[in-house]
Amino acid sequence: MYNIKEGGDYLRKIVGAVLILSAFLLTSCSKAPEKSEEHFFAMDTYMSIEAYGDNSEKCVSQARKRVETLEKLWSATDENSEIYAINHGKNPELSVETLDLLSFTLEMSAKTDGAFDATIYPVLTAWGFTADEHRVPDENELAELLEKVGYGKVSADGNKITLEKGMMLDFGGAAKGYASDECAAIMRENGIKSALINLGGNVYALGKRPDGNLWKIGIADPLGENSENAGIVAVSDRAVVTSGNYQRSFTQNGKTYGHIIDPKTGYPADNDLLSVTVIAEEGKLCDVLSTALFVMGRERAERFFRENGGFDMILIAKSGEIYITEGISENFTSDRKVCVIN
Ligand code: ADP
Ligand code: MG
After folding, report:
1. What is the pTM of this model?
2. What is the C-alpha to C-alpha distance for residues 183 and 49, in angstroms, rounded to an integer?
3. pLDDT tens digits, residue range 85-102?
4. Hey, which residues does 261 pair with through a beta bridge?
5. What gap in Å lies between CA 119 and CA 154, rounded to an integer?
6. Which bound ligand lies closest to the C-alpha atom of 116?
7. What is the pLDDT of residues 268-281, one digit of tens each?
8. What separation in Å is there between the alpha carbon of 1 and the centre of ligand 2?
């Protein structure tokens, strides 16, 4: 039998429970998702990884371990690395990762007509960039070393590769981009919806910021001091990678030499560009292309873009102008003069 008093109590209990539940839901909705971050040094640069949500602590730690594992495989100076072994006349069975990045860099070396060349290492060493003992090699020395450079001379046989005597491999222009893709994959596999992976300027912005907005990535002003930005690009699920000879360089007799080498001449790339930023879905593509397009200079870089597409770019010219592709024009802000490439 329905009793009014009891019915009233019953209703009050339900209303009370609903109130408690909604208060709980409200607090859990407004509570910021758990943030985890790690800052560390690897691949010769400073890195940081931040991720949001349940599981984020585990993911950040796994991502860092993945970067460290790849570094162990690819460090050109670590005597135990696969690259070191290859570069010192050995012929080891290569890991899946090394074969994967090797085939990608060789493919991109061909696609960029050698502006990117995975075998540039002997020349880089002659300039002292690998040991931080900078010097300017003479033309004869460079001409001789360039004979040891040529992605077309690398021959693969199953999971082994052979280099001609004196040839050496270098993943310095691609490893961080590849590693950022691996970090993003770890995040996605574990259900992370929001993360910012910054491997020494090779950025991967996963999902959106925890507040639902796009990630905002500052593009460094190559001539600016105190890490000023030349502009800001807003992205989601994109890698953003910048290359420029202002990043690692030395000056001798008034001339500045940078660490990105033009494989055609053996000299540091020196053209009308100060920096190139590439924005695309894959970090490894961005990393290789930012280096290659920097070597190409503006005109060739624009032609490459028109012929290939599949990415966006921001070119900062020595003239001070900024050139960007149409795909990011709505999401790029700058105080400078910006020209849209189409
Ligand atoms: P960073 O490694 O500073 O982020 P990049 O991605 O542009 O910058 O890579 C530059 C590195 O790539 C150099 O330090 C060197 O190891 C290697 N490198 C230099 N020139 C070339 C080139 N033309 N092709 C391939 N790799 C290059
Ligand atoms: Mg690169």
Report:
1. 0.91
2. 9
3. 999 999 999 999 999 999
4. 268
5. 9
6. 1
7. 999 999 999 999 99
8. 78
